[in-house]
Structure formats: C-alpha cells, structure tokens
Amino acid sequence: MNNSSIELNRVRYANLPYLVDGKLRKDHRYRILAEKSFYQKHIQELGLFNPRILDLGCHDGQILRLIVGNRVTKLTGVDILETAVKKARARGIKALVANIDEGLKFEDSSFDIIFAGEIIEHLYNPEKILQDINRVLSKNGALIISVPNICSLRNRARILGGVFPYHYNSSAQERWGDHIRLFTIKSLTSLLEENGFCVNSILTNGLFGSGFAKNIFPSLGDILVIYALKVRDNDK
Q: pTM of the entire structure?
C-alpha cells in the first residue's frame, strides 16, 4: 500500500451548486478535489481518453460533472432518488434508479472507473457491494472511494466529551442517522484488499478539517479518500 499524498491544486469552487444545508461543506470541497486528482492520475497513467465511468449514489450528477468535465460522455450513475436521477440525466449521465444494497445490475467488466463517494457507510453489506464493484470493473480498473473517518481527531475529542462522533446518531430520525457502517483507514483498506483491490493512495483533509498535518497523521483526518486498483477477480 502506498500512502503517499498527492498535492492538490488550489482550485476555488465558490459557486459550486452542490449544497448541504444551504452551503457547501468544506469536506465536500476537499472530497471533490481529491477524487478529481485520483481520476486524472488514473486516466493519464492508462491513457484513457473517454473512460467508462460509474458513479454510485450519483445524486443529481453535479459532483461527477465537476470531477470529469463535460467532454467525457460514457457516464452512468445510480441513485435511489428518482428526482435526482432525472436531473442527472439532464446533465448527460445515463442515470438509473436503484437500491445499491441490492447489488449492481451491470455486465462484468462494464466500467473503467467507479466512484463511490460517501455511500458505503449507508449500506448494510459493504462487502457485497465491493465484490460487485470488482466484478463490473475492467482489468486495471480503479475504484475511487470516500468515507467519513470514525477515528478522526475531531471524533476522538467528541467521544471523550461524551458526544456522538460526527455523522452518527442513535436514531434514523436524527441528522446523519442513516450512517450505519463505521470506517477507519485500516478497516477500509483491509476490506478493499479482501475483495480484490490494492490501495494505491490515500488522501485526508487533515486535523479538524484543515490542511494541517494531513501528511503526518492521515489516520486522524475527517474524511478519507482512497484510490484503489482492481488486482484480481473476486469470486466470493
């Protein structure tokens, strides 16, 4: 596993239309930049001009378009919300309404790159979806995945103070109550490796969401963005 960090370009997304509670959270900005960095790295190394891309939990397609630009046309998205899927289709994405927990209804080796941005923490069986991702990825395909880090420095401080970790609650009626799986760098890396992937690089947004010490203490960042390569077919 290579934990080397990739220096991100300082690009401003002041007018980014993807909103959470009326504003773009810092971790979403970071996630977009990190995923774009890994995407560009992969297509440059493999010489992919118009890669076949699948976005799991694509929502309205805004994030995917920000990452890949407007020239890429072989885009497929999956989301559980029909209203979001309609908006994604308007952006030129072949979007489908589906429940990812029920598996991926695609042929083997259908995609070159799959994005799973902050989605598997919502799933009951993340191992099953990783096996399906492995199956539908082509040889030398890449998975670019991001999750909240339960062991971030922020969350460790909250637990010491008797407060729930950021993103998690007891009730599904509360904010972030639908996050049902917990991940750390070690646990997510192990899960990926057990299901046919090799972790190439990991990026984190540093301590308390800042850029401070992100290269020294990557396991303490709020969000983990991982670039993993398919290294074998998974027949589990």
A: 0.85
